[in-house]
Amino acid sequence: MDRGYEKERFESVSIKTSVVKKFRRYCRQLSKSQSMTLLLMLEFFEDNGISPNESMGPHMQTLEKLIKKRINGVIAILKDIEKSQTKPTVAMMETLFKEAEPKKKPLILEKKNVEKKQPKYRERNQIDL
């Protein structure tokens, strides 16, 4: 049973035998009932504004080419922005940070040359007495 359509009654439509066979095969491929398949087809045509009499081949190919051109245009714009704006800005920022980088100064308490000094006072050994 089709969900949401359980309470609706069936109507009959007269369709040629060859068309019905083809339609039923198509319904089996979609794994849908005949009513739901027909509903999906109608909604597709209405949503996309397509007439079954129109050919989709050249029309879809033209749209595909147009989309590819626009995508290529966007890619070119992004590359230009990267080349002319992003990379120079990053380079300037890096040079600013390198110059502003604080130089390491030794701590006040730190002594570089620590010499071992002789103590001013020595302990007397017992022998020296």
Describe this structure in words.
Residues 108-129 are annotated as: Disordered. With 129 residues, the protein is mostly helical. Among the domains are: 12-53, Arc Repressor Mutant (Orthogonal Bundle); 55-99. 57% of the residues lie in helices and 0% in strands. It has three helices and no strands. It has helices at 17-30, 34-48, 57-100. It is elongated and about 130 Å long. The relative contact order is 0.04. The mean pLDDT is 81.
In short:
InterPro entries: BfmA-like_N. Residues 108-129 are annotated as: Disordered. The protein has helices spanning 17-30, 34-48, 57-100.
Which features would summarize this protein structure in a list?
129 residues, single chain, Arc Repressor Mutant, mainly alpha
- Average pLDDT across residues? 81
What string, H for helix and E for strand, traces the elements in order? HHH
Structural class: mainly alpha
In helices, the fraction of residues equals 55-70%
Shape: elongated
Quantity of strands, as a count: 0
What is the tally of helical segments?
3
Tell me the major beta sheet: none
Approximately what portion of the residues adopt beta-strand conformation?
A: under 5%
Radius of gyration: 43 Å
